[in-house]
């Protein structure tokens, strides 16, 4: 996309946020709009596809702090009410009246005293540190984010999942060069492929984007019909995503180079897959440890017992010592989460006494005899002491 096209767009309006929105607000707005307008959810809806592309493009700029800063500076320079009184193309400047971006980025008129603005905007359009002005046209592709949902066991053990994704990618028809198959972009004769031309004004020399190629360095005489010369098109592709063992709910997995394609030979952005883990009916998690609460009978805590406890894939025997209190946590070594780095967690078993809803017959009589035998034993001596002190 040319400099003129980028500045002329209101990315904040595309996402429906204010210009001082936080990064979290921008991300939340993007994810909501991307879900609503995703091509998979709106098959055959051209307007939804257009909106999906627009919000993806806006998020690619506003989610990158450096790109957003440069974009904001350009908006301040050319937006309505700015010091120079310049307006966006077709808008009212409120000052000098409809300043023509063509004077800077190509199209009629002479640059006059504004030729230096080409250098001022150099960083915004990717010419930072370019050798001879050619390498700077390259622009890294924007990062893309998507979501997957997995069950608890897959999060613990890891999984390999197919991911179907509709997103901007390198145009398959022209292989990303923007030209119709059988043709190639030609080097711009006006700037010699540099993308910049120098102009002299008195004792000063200024550089500005070439008007013929709009700063790209090449000219496409016959654009690709699929991507209209952009080299990028929205396609549905299937990727294989490896979910590592021990992934946490909300964690992002980075797939390098699987985001939006770069321009001018620059590398593609990255794809971030945010993982959502469904809860388990019995197991929980604390770091690398698995947790489970196991009901036990009163006599098992008092007299001691060996109980069988499930794990995610088998079962283990756990010894309960006589006199164990309800709520005690027993640790089963090595039965938690095993990660690639060699770390492994344990299984934490919380014992919880199970109180029967009703006791009859011999069991009731036995409990009554037990209560009589232990009538002089106070199970809460500290509470009793406090009550005595307050009653005196």
TrEMBL record:
GO terms for cellular component: cytoplasm. It is found in: Cytoplasm. Zn(2+) 2 binds at residues 188, 191, 210, 213. Binds 2 Zn(2+) ions per monomer. Residues 373-392 are annotated as: Disordered. Coiled coil: none annotated. Homodimer. PANTHER family: CHAPERONE PROTEIN DNAJ 1, DNAJ HOMOLOG 1, MITOCHONDRIAL-RELATED. This is Chaperone protein DnaJ. The gene is dnaJ.
């Amino acid at each position: 996309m040319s400099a003129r096209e980028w500045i002329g767009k209101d990315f904040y309006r595309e996402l429906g946020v204010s210009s001082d929105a936080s990064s979290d607000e921008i991300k939340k707005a993007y994810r909501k709009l991307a879900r609503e307008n995703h091509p998979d959810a709106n098959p055959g809806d051209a307007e939804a596809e257009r909106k999906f592309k627009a919000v993806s493009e806006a998020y690619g700029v506003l989610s990158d702090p450096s790109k957003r800063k440069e974009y904001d500076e350009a908006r301040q320079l050319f937006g309505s009410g700015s010091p120079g009184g310049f307006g966006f193309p077709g808008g009212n400047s409120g000052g000098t009246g409809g300043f023509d971006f063509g004077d800077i980025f190509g199209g009629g008129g002479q640059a006059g005293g504004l030729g230096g603005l080409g250098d001022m905007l150099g960083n915004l359009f990717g010419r930072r540190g370019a050798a001879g002005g050619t390498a700077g046209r390259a622009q890294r592709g924007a990062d893309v984010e998507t979501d997957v949902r997995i069950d608890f066991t897959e999060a613990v053990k890891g999984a390999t999942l197919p991911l179907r994704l509709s997103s901007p990618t390198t145009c398959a028809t022209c292989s990303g060069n923007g030209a119709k198959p059988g043709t190639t972009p030609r080097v711009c004769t006006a700037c010699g492929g540099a993308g910049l031309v120098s102009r002299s004004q008195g004792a000063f020399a200024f550089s500005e984007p070439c008007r013929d190629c709009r700063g790209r360095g090449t000219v496409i005489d016959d654009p690709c019909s699929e991507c209209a010369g952009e080299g990028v098109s929205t396609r549905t592709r299937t990727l294989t995503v490896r979910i590592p063992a021990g992934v946490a709910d909300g964690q992002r997995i980075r797939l390098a180079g699987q985001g939006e394609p770069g321009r001018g030979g620059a590398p593609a952005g990255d794809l971030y897959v945010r993982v959502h883990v469904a809860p388990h009916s019995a197991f929980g998690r604390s770091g690398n440890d698995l947790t489970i609460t196991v009901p036990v009978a009163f006599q098992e805590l008092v007299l001691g017992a060996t109980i069988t406890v499930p794990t995610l894939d088998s079962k283990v025997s756990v010894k309960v010592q006589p006199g164990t209190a309800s709520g005690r946590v027993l640790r089963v070594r090595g039965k938690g989460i095993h990660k690639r780095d060699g770390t492994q967690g344990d299984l934490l078993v919380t014992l919880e006494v199970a109180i029967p809803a009703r006791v009859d017959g011999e069991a009731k009589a036995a409990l009554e005899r037990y209560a009589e035998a232990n009538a002089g034993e106070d199970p809460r001596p500290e509470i009793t002491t406090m009550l005595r002190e307050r009653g005196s």
